[in-house]
Amino acid sequence: MDHTITAALQRATEHRRRFDARFAAYFDSLTDPAGGALDGPQHGRFPARALDLLRDLSLRGGKRLRVAVLNEAAALATDEAVPGLAEAAISIELLQTHGLIHDDIIDGSAVRRGAPSVPHAYRDEFPDRPDTALGLAVLAGDLAAFLSLRVLVTSDLPPDRAAAMAAVQSDAAATTVIGQFLDLERDFGPVPDLDLLHAVTEFKSTRYSVLAPLRLGLLAAGSDPAPHDGELRRYSTALGIANMLRDDWLDLFGDPDTVGKSLGSDIRSGRRSYVVRALLAADTDAAERTVLDAAIGDPQCDDDTLDRVRAVARRHGVDRSLQADAERHAREASALAGTWRTRWRADAVAFFEHLPTWTAARDR
């Protein structure tokens, strides 16, 4: 691996190490018997169980790239310590937890980050009351979303800065929900075009995973992101598409032990992901079409059938074309970041130049 990419990953790893300890302390503060930061009820086990599940999901993994983007965005403007970054990072990751829970509800996913998803944890606890299990999972996801905003507005930041950062997160949360609507709409009707898939990526993922952390980091460092919003959006869009293309590639062609969940979720759900769209648009013969028709949208699609789908995809170059597209968008993002060198600090700019290359080649 290129030493400059390695250096960027080392920076990301250090951000993650510091953040994970801070995130654990945050959850401790919510439930501290001596007077938790969250004014919860003295009675009732369901609220406490929800916080346990949120804590477990939030702390048990994830690349924390949003946290790295946030910290490096602040480093674009200053090399000094920046108050409010910890709260902003917690806010970002709580919103991510909300998104993961609701994704798993919609998709019916049993595993998340190598362990049972929150919906399935509740389903196991209430096997005879599926409606209760579903309701509790929805509420747990909602709690994470509201805590995401609360951590900013209750911080020690100056009120105007806290309000500006909370506004960024509110916008990110709203656009993410809009993205979920588009995600479901995409699967109706004919094979979607790339513009719709890019829109789903933009709203469901990119805006809260890349654009919001960029804005929050600059705001926390005292730099107004508004004059640069157009180029921040273009960078975020290119990086977001590269990231989603790689995610979709890994869902069919990755190593399940490395990815941390079972493969083929897009095939089994029938979700019109970049991979599924490419398969449906491929010039397949009758036998290949029979394989695809039997597998796509079948929740019981077994590993042998998935292997046959994988073979069809490789015969038609779906694996190669999607990876090439991911690398093309990654190069676009890197080139955009390179133009920032005349304005922002070089070491942080280098991080944003090399992040897309790593994103398009990662194995999890």
Task: Characterise this structure.
Belongs to the FPP/GGPP synthase family. By secondary structure, this protein is an all-alpha fold. It has one domain (3-359): Farnesyl Diphosphate Synthase. The chain contains 16 helices and two strands.
Strand content: under 5%
Gross morphology: globular
**Nearest-angstrom radius of gyration?**
21 Å
Low-pLDDT sequence parts: none
Number of strands: 2
The helical percent reads over 70%
Q: What summary fits the major beta sheet?
A: 2 strands, antiparallel
The named CATH superfamily: Farnesyl Diphosphate Synthase
Short description, anyone?
With 364 residues, the chain is mostly helical. It has helices spanning 3-30, 45-59, 65-77, 85-107, 118-125, 130-153, 159-185, 194-220, 229-253, 256-259, 265-269, 274-281, 286-295, 303-315, 318-338, 346-359; strands spanning 111-112, 115-116.
Sequence-ordered SSE layout with sheet pairings:
Blueprint: H1 3-30, H2 45-59, H3 65-77, H4 85-107, E1 111-112, E2 115-116, H5 118-125, H6 130-153, H7 159-185, H8 194-220, H9 229-253, H10 256-259, H11 265-269, H12 274-281, H13 286-295, H14 303-315, H15 318-338, H16 346-359
Antiparallel strand pairs: 1-2
Helix pairs in contact: 1-2, 1-3, 1-16, 2-6, 3-4, 3-8, 3-16, 4-6, 4-7, 4-8, 5-6, 6-7, 7-8, 8-9, 9-15, 13-14, 15-16
